[in-house]
Amino acid sequence: MSILLRIALILILAIGGGSLALAQDAPDAPSSSAAAPVTVDQLNGQLEQLRQTLADTDKLGDAALQDLRSRAQALQQQADQLVASLSPQSDALKAKLDVLGPAPEKGQPGEPPEVANQRKQLGKDKADLDAQMKQAKTVSLESAQLAGQIVGLRRQLFEARLSQRTSSPLSLAFWSSLSRNAPDDRAGLAELGRDTWTAMSKAWQPGNRTPFFICTLAAIALFAVGRRLLEQALLRLTSDRMPAGHLRRSALALFITLGTTLTFGFAAYLLYLGLDWNGTLGEEIGGLFASLVMLAWIAAYIAGLGRALLSSGRPSWRMPALSDDLARRLRPFPPLLAWCTLLIGLAERITAQVSASLSATVAVNGLLSLLVAGLIAAALLRMGRARRALLAAGTAPGKRPLWVGLLVAVAFAGVVTLALSLLTGYIALAFFEARQMLRGGVIVGTVYLLMHLLNDVFESLLSPDSRTGSRMHESFGVSPVRMEQAAVVLSGVTRALLLLLAISSLLSPYNAGPDELFERGSQLFAGRTIGTLSIVPGNIFSALGVLVAGVAAIRLVKRWLSQQLLPKTALDPGMQMSIVTLLGYVCGVLVFVLVLGALKVDLQSITWVASALSVGIGFGLQAIVQNFISGLILLAERPVKVGDWVSLPGAGVEGDIKRINVRATEIQQGDRSTVIVPNSQLITQNVRNVTQAGALGRVQIRLPLPLSTDAGKARKVLLGTMGEHPSTLETPKPSVQLDTIDGQSLIFVCTAYVGSPREVAAVKSDLLFEMLERLANAQLPMSTPQDMVLRRPPSESRTSVDAQFGAPPPATPPAS
Fold first, then answer.
1. How far apart are CA 690 and CA 636, in angstroms?
2. DSSP codes of every residue in 298-350
3. pLDDT by residue (tens digit) across 126-184?
4. Which CATH number fits domain 697-777: 1.10.274.10, 3.40.930.10, 3.40.640.10, 3.30.70.100?
5. pTM for the predicted model, two decimal places
6. Strand order in the sheet with 745-754
7. Structure-model confidence comparison of residues 569 and 694, the more confident one
């Protein structure tokens, strides 16, 4: 750790010194606050100068066109700022004119001359401001059109370069042209080498020796041990501080990528800083070395990204589904591709620096393209060998995702087309393909890493088991299901945005900078509309922010009302729930209006929508609107409320009301099932509310006893049973009545009252069990025993009876 602290101290001192040196070398720039305001005439002059420069397009390269585009965009911003600054002044003049009112008509009393002069002057000033605003808006529009024209010219120039064809490297003309220009190219390279050595030798002079020595030692320390120490510290951080799960893996991959980029990038910057401490390198050599430092940052990022994704030393931390054998086979390719990227950028700058001949530039580009194609082809071959090795070992390789198969197919097709382009002489096209393949691989790898990282972040933060999820559940009352849904939605939205940005950068026709890529991504939906509603990404994000903030505020207010304020009032729980529900609907409508305002939705569009909705209501939405209005009536008048026991005879529904929504009411029946009843039925049909007025529950039992029963003794037993039950009320007191004598039975009617109708069934069951037991103990039977007597009817003959029971028939008397 002490070594890491020393390295950090050296970095801070070196970077601070470099920043101080750069600050000393930089010219004093005027502050924006002291700059004079731009005028319309100046804007018109700048616009005319841009047009004149753009008129000679044959002498303009891609860099000059890109600079002209930046100037046109800056001019457009200045014009917009001028319009924004003049608008308040115009509004103020209009307000003054409104205060003065219109000039009196003919035949009316005149006004004082001071008022007339003031109105005239104000009108003149407002007309001048309006004219300036119109001119500034025109300049803004023409600047935007000019920027679009420059983009078209850059695209044409790019396509023209790609379509250029030279002699094939297999032909003699290619090599003869290269040999003819070789002496001049060697002389240019030699001169550049002498200038570079002279500039670098100045770094060892006495005034620059100490900073050069310190920066070199710091760079060597970063190269040697800085990356390893940083990765070990980050590994301990992810293992100790982060929750267990996939977030550790994706975070470590990101840390490895950034650690490799920072260490190698800062090391290259420290070397450059030591060489150019006091501007010893000069303008040309210093610019070359500065571009080399930028290329070192890019190459370090490529190497770090490849190391993080392959993770050959830590298979358990590997993000892609790669076998250990394949990861070891592909391990050398990320640094090799990083060196290729460095060589490509360095070759482009050196050829431009020495003004190399066309044949030399084409040869260098062809050689670098061939190198990139060879590396990618070797990587594809190693992937195939690893797959065949798995099959030979009897292990089935993992199922490859569709996008991975497409990526491999694109890489294979790119290698084939690159080789064909080289052989046929389209070396510019081959060089472009090589750069695009490197660039596409970096973009795909970065997007893959960021997608997994964002998905793991949302899943970890919004997991019910995490610390953040527990706090959200305790503070905001968010259910675990809602947190999981929010994690899925946020992950999907961010991954979709990343994918759109990646596609826009992959499909860019030429090398685009960060500003251009951001503008391309932000203008993806520019100019597209849905009806009269324009799709503006900024408005969409603002509306999403308003929606999220509004929903969170509604939940907080409802929770405060339901858990803190309303429980301390005398309102019953049903009324409290009705208030919270109504407030939620009102606040929801308010949030909806605010979201429409953030989307810049025209009120006229809303009027048309409302008119169309009214037509739809007249035909097909009558029942929905009827239930909606009925729900509002139920929440306001409260003929039934949450917790009431209701019965709908017409629908055959009886149970407790659990929730009153704006469209339907949920009634829970005795078997714990829930019936969704439209609110209109509770308004238009007969509803029996058992518990609205606090009605008591009546337990009534009809008990038949034999006619020989001692009625007084039975009455005493039954009254004692009902009076001793803990749920029966003393007032009204229980009663036992002899209702009637039915045949051989006495019908007793036992009546008792309980506190709630919901207790009737349970208390009735308890009383029946107890009554049967006590009646049995008091020897009061429930029925009279009957004697079983077998009688023979007189009409039945003995012969038939004997025959029935199998007896022989009597002998027939002889005839007289």
1. 20
2. HHHHHHHHHHHHH-TT-GGG--S---HHHHHHHTTHHHHHHHHHHHHHHHHHH
3. 888 888 888 888 888 888 888 778 777 766 666 566 677 778 888 888 888 888 888 88
4. 3.30.70.100
5. 0.59
6. 697-706, 745-754, 735-742
7. 569
